[in-house]
Specification:
Elements (H helix, E strand, L loop, with lengths): L1 E3 L3 H25 L5 H5 L1 H20 L7 H18 L7 H27 L5 H19 L1 E6 L2 E6 L17 E5 L13 H20 L1 H11 L1 H6 L4 H24 L12 H14 L4 H17 L7 H16 L2 H14 L6 E3 L2
Antiparallel strand pairs: 1-5, 2-3, 2-4
Helix pairs in contact: 1-7, 3-7, 3-10, 3-11, 3-12, 4-5, 4-6, 4-10, 5-10, 7-8, 7-10, 8-10, 11-12
Length: 360
């Protein structure tokens, strides 16, 4: 019997946690000292939200091996349910931190329900069919939010669907002290922004703990077995529907929590923010960072969120330069020579220990 003194996977996970913690500490110190620009400081919360989105989507695309193009839909469910919860609980929960935590939990809960309802029939599909159906889900959610009217007063929540386009928030029957939360196509306006960088850091850490522990668990090995060979996994008794749904719902819940964080960082938020382009953007984070590579998703999401602001000096050519940089990075990361170079660096830092303890 051989017992490794250091487990390679455990050390890799520890370094991932440590890297995120160090980044948070450094950015917090720089922010307090005014060493970073106001623009970058304002992007810290969105970066945390997008990092969470990238990690959660990597669970579906990289670990499960299924292509989902509707991840922004789960983010939208979390964002607007979180905003409704935070705005309606202002008097009941005066503490912004506690109210934000409750909003994020509720956002994750409702997104998980959406993931279960969508995933149960959809995960029977594969490949392009699954991608098309998840894309349709994201667009349906966007249109439903565009028709949603929500308000709150001392009598509780008032909700209404403006399907014919003839109703307004006035039709909710709010009292004088009532709060208009969601106004249809105008989205959520006058939202109290309570999201913080600290809350974003905690969300990223929770996401890492959930995803990495799931991957290392027996269920995670079953999920990866489905990705590698579905027929072989089914032949040894692995419940395909169960493990696919587990990964999909977990991914949706984390996306919902990130949506709540993102939504409560914006004073005004419309459903159009969570369109097809947002789903593709998050998918780019995952592909650029490497399928199944959690640390790569963190770096890719951070860099690609900050890059457009760094290129603002190029004025109208900013997005053109962004696209060129993105293409060049894609080509470089898929180059065999570059892959070998990064693999050597990785093996040097994460090499297997030479010492072993032999036991009876």
């Amino acid at each position: 019997m051989k017992i490794n003194l250091r487990n390679k996977r455990t050390r890799t996970d520890f370094l991932t946690y440590a890297g995120v913690i160090i980044a948070f500490v450094v950015m917090t110190i720089l922010q307090k000292q005014g060493a970073i620009s106001r623009s970058l400081s304002g992007q810290l919360v969105p970066i945390c939200a997008y990092v969470t989105m990238a990690i959660s989507l990597n669970l579906t695309v990289g670990i499960l091996g299924e292509l989902s193009l509707g991840h922004a839909g789960f983010m939208s469910v979390g964002a607007f349910s979180g905003i409704i919860a935070a705005m309606s609980l202002q008097s009941a929960i005066p503490s912004d931190a506690v109210r934000l935590a409750v909003a994020m939990v509720l956002g994750a809960f409702f997104a998980a329900i959406a993931g279960f309802l969508v995933g149960t029939p959809v995960l029977r599909l594969r490949g392009d069919y699954l991608a098309i159906v998840t894309l349709a889900f994201g667009e349906i959610i966007k249109e439903l939010v565009n028709c949603l009217l929500v308000g709150y007063d001392e009598n509780g929540l008032h909700m209404m669907f403006n399907l014919n386009g003839q109703k307004t928030v006035a039709d909710l029957g709010l009292t004088e002290n009532g709060i208009e939360i969601i106004k249809g196509a105008q989205g959520a306006t006058s939202t109290t922004t309570i999201a913080t960088f600290t809350a974003g850091f905690i969300l990223v850490m929770v996401t890492l703990i959930v995803v990495l522990n799931l991957i290392r668990s027996r269920s995670g090995r079953a999920i990866m077995a489905l990705r590698d060979n579905r027929i072989a996994a089914e032949s040894v008794g692995i419940n395909i529907t169960k493990y696919k749904l587990m990964a999909f719902v977990t991914s949706a819940a984390l996306a919902g929590a990130s949506g709540a964080l993102y939504g409560l960082n914006m004073a005004s938020l419309q459903a159009t923010k969570f369109n097809f382009n947002t789903s593709i953007l998050v998918l780019v984070f995952v592909v650029l960072g490497g399928l199944g590579n959690i640390w790569g998703s963190i770096i890719a999401a951070t860099l690609l969120t900050v890059l457009p602001e760094m290129l603002r000096s190029f004025a109208e050519f900013r997005m053109l330069v962004y696209a060129i940089v993105l293409i060049l990075v894609m080509l470089a990361t898929n180059n065999p020579t570059m892959k070998l170079f990064f693999e050597r660096i990785r093996s040097r830092f994460f090499k297997k220990p030479a010492k072993e303890v032999r036991g009876k």
